[in-house]
Amino acid sequence: MTLLEARDLRVEFASRGRRARAVDGVNLAIGAGEIVALVGESGCGKTTLARTLLGLERPVSGSVVYGGAPLDYSSRALKAYRREVQLVLQDPTGSLNPRHNVYEAVAEGPRIHGLTDERERVLSALSRAGLRPPERFLLTYPHELSGGQRQRVVIAGALALDPRLLVADEPVASLDASVRGEILALLMRLRDELGLSALVVTHDLGLAWNIADRVAVMYLGRIVETGPVEQVLTSPSHPYTQALLSVLPESPAPVVLAGEPPDPTRIPGGCRFHPRCQVLASGDAARAGVDHACRSEPLAVLSASGGSQVACHYAGVRESLP
């Protein structure tokens, strides 16, 4: 069952007299009890898409659909929605008020939503987040905790509202390597024990491999490849996905992309990746007879179906070969 879905979502911002198409036609579905990784380099639109799914940004077109109904942007409806769809930010230190102890930090959500049994909710959330015994942490302040413990407090603050879905924006990027695995294991355990869904926003394909059921690769405002995580990461079809994977330690050789980082105010014609594409630069696209299409023919927006899909002229030709 689909819990949260983006349907042809488009988000724009004014930038130096031009319009930046931060999200430029995205279809993405997250099922109940499913973890989806949204990956891509900085500036590709991942965080804007996540904020739009949370109702923090309003799309210029398309819609966010939750539980089968389009998102209602009235204050009352958004408050109810955000109890069920909670955000976990990258920097736990910046997320926590240094003047609030752990109890106050975790109790903030239940107080905003007027929930009863506040203390029981706080204790239960801390315990589920792996801070045990929870009573030991109640009067502790953020500066007295390790980075991993602070991130667990942030997660506990979300769990105190009994959400159905977490949107985690780079949830382990600011943590030591020794702690990252613990937080990822916690997210997977919450999925298994509570049926919690999650959208994990990251630039790290290694993280996606370890935690996600499905992966969506985003470039310049649009998803260019999507599918089951094992299939996409073991047999990537899009040259951009191949380049992202090439920087992992076990990769034989990194792919160095040509050209400038993408500018959402100047989206190129044809395939939006073609100015930096290693397949086009190497001549492989010309030998396959698709170099003109790469430069001039736009690709269709990928659907939100659960199967493997890729937006690439060269990949389409290669798949059709015997």
Describe this structure in words.
This is ABC transporter ATP-binding protein. GO terms for molecular function: ATP binding. Belongs to the ABC transporter superfamily. Pfam families: ABC_tran, oligo_HPY. With 322 residues, the chain is of the alpha/beta class. The protein has helices at 46-53, 75-84, 92-95, 102-112, 118-128, 147-159, 177-194, 205-211, 229-234, 239-245, 278-282, 284-287, 291-296, 313-320, and strands spanning 2-15, 18-31, 35-39, 61-66, 69-70, 85-88, 165-169, 197-202, 214-219, 222-228, 309-310. It has a 7-stranded mixed β-sheet, sandwiched between helices. The protein has a 4-stranded antiparallel β-sheet with strand order 2-1-4-5, covered by helices on one side. The mean pLDDT is 93.
Helix tally equals: 14
Low-confidence stretches: none
- Helices and strands, in order, run as EEEHEEHEHHHHEHEHEEHHHHHEH
| Share of residues in helices | 25-40%
Main beta sheet: 7 strands, mixed
CA-atom Rg in angstroms? 21 Å
Envelope shape:
globular
Distance between the termini: 36 Å
Q: Could you give the order of strands across the largest sheet?
A: 6-7-8-3-9-10-11
- Helix/strand structural class: alpha/beta
Question: What's the rounded overall pLDDT mean?
Answer: 93
Domain ABC transporter: 4-245
Protein name: ABC transporter ATP-binding protein
InterPro entries: AAA+_ATPase (IPR003593), ABC_transp_ATP-bind (IPR050319), ABC_transporter-like_ATP-bd (IPR003439), ABC_transporter-like_CS (IPR017871), Oligopep_ABC_C (IPR013563), P-loop_NTPase (IPR027417)
Pfam families: ABC_tran, oligo_HPY
